[in-house]
Amino acid sequence: MDGASLQDECAGFVSELRFDVVGAEGPKRYFGSLGKEQLAHAYCFTGPAGIGKKTFARRLAQSVLCLASKRGVLGYDGDCSSCALFGREHTRHPDFLEHTGALRIGDADSPLAFHEAEELSARDLVRQLSLQSYSGGMRVLLLGDVDFATHEAANALLRLLEEPPSGLVMILTTATPGRLLDTIRSRLIDVRFPLLSKRELGEILTGLGYDAKAVKLGVSLGAGSVRRALAALTPREESVRAAVIEWFFTSVAGKSPEESWATRESLSEGLEIVKMLVRDWIVVGFDGNALLCDDQENRLRKLPKLESRAAAALLAKLEDAARLSHTNVMPSVVADFVRMNLTSIR
Ligand SMILES: [Zn+2]
Question: What pTM did the predictor assign?
Answer without folding.
Answer: 0.64
